[in-house]
């Protein structure tokens, strides 16, 4: 005796949403097996023909813009090079490129960049951090900017969220003359120009010294020198603050930095002093931005710039000739120019 099937459930938004989420995530073979016979699919899952047509139309429209894996049919990755694919085989050689047009390779490059960031942070971390905070005196953190410090000042976002929940931020471009009163305008412009010129001179002197040091001591350049803390410590040296520099020394700073600065300083134009008081906060921000620029240069721009440098060296030595009729080459072995 055949058991009669129950009638369709009817209009049920939650049921259609559930099936939509299921069908957009299943592999292609599973989707075809479920939806080849639309009448059978509607009957098995208690849907009306109209609901089935609406559901499958929305699913097909959504999956048209997806790159489905050619190996397993999953819509969440494009090829078996993705780690999410069950047929993924790890490559037997490391990825040397810093960018790629392939989505899976680009995702792997970004993952390697994140691992490199963690390694650089671990190498630059203080091996003997302070046990107590100088501001609140509690253990577990060393400064007031740590989230665990009760004396930590709220950020602008936290302050606005506590006072005006659900507020929206926007930017409006206004001229300086419209927001600063005339009696204070000249003093503000003079202060901005003074701070900008001082920070520019200090960071230029710092970068020139680091380049000269790395050129003469290529095997003694730890990641700490190009992080925010390392840049700020060396800025104390290049600003003439020898006492502050020696107070901040630890095993992360190579001994050759001070020795090289003493020899490097003799070739500089003798000035009475490099330092000007009242610029600590601006230098801290500048060192943080410089550390970000160093990181971006290594992870994003290094490959293209080293290629341009190699082409320049080849051109200087006359090793590059114009291609004629699709033919070209080197006059001598490229390794002889280095």
Topology:
Layout: H1 13-23, H2 28-35, H3 38-44, H4 49-64, H5 103-124, H6 156-163, H7 176-179, H8 182-216, H9 228-238, H10 242-247, H11 256-265, H12 280-316
Keywords: Signal
Signal peptide: 1-33
Short structural summary:
By secondary structure, the protein is mostly helical. It has twelve helices and no strands.
Structural write-up:
The protein has 338 residues and is mainly α. Among the domains are: 1-90; 188-316, no CATH class. The protein contains 12 helices and no strands. Helix 1 runs parallel beside helix 4 (49-64), helix 3 (38-44) crosses helix 4 and helix 8 packs across helix 12 (280-316). The model is unreliable at 321-327 and 330-338 (pLDDT under 50).
The best one-word shape is extended
Overall radius of gyration: 31 Å
Largest sheet: none
Tell me, rounded to a whole number, the average pLDDT. 79
Query: Count the helices. How many?
Result: 12
Strand-residue fraction?
under 5%
- Our measurement of the CA-to-CA distance between the termini, rounded to an integer number of angstroms, reads 89 Å
Keywords: Signal
Signal peptide: 1-33
What descriptors fit this protein?
mainly alpha; 338 residues; extended; signal
